[in-house]
Amino acid sequence: QVEVVESGGGLAQPGGPLRLSCSASGDVPREFSTGWDRQAPGKERELISTITTRHTASYTDALTGRFTIARDPDTNTVYLYMNNLKPEDTAVYYCNVKTDTQSYWGPGTQVTVSS
Predict the structure, then answer these.
(1) Residue 67 pLDDT greater than 80, yes or no
(2) How far apart are CA 26 and CA 85, in angstroms?
């Protein structure tokens, strides 16, 4: 199995940056897709960004330019760089790893944007 764990969440100031990390361990294949979702209070979970082993990334239109995804294949770590944070960005952020046969999810990390 693949274990996925997010980290880096916490309290952030409006307009500030924050970096989230996602570590994958266990039986991690050479090629897989990974990405970030988030779920705000009272809202459905929404896709933020995905990236492939070939580093091809896609983003939700509303977040393009503020959020950036990157991965380090040597450490099986995926990052989400968030800039110009807004109170509306407050949510639980989830990382996922998807292979040809299965999807793996982390427990999530809370991000709160407030003054």
Answers:
(1) yes
(2) 33
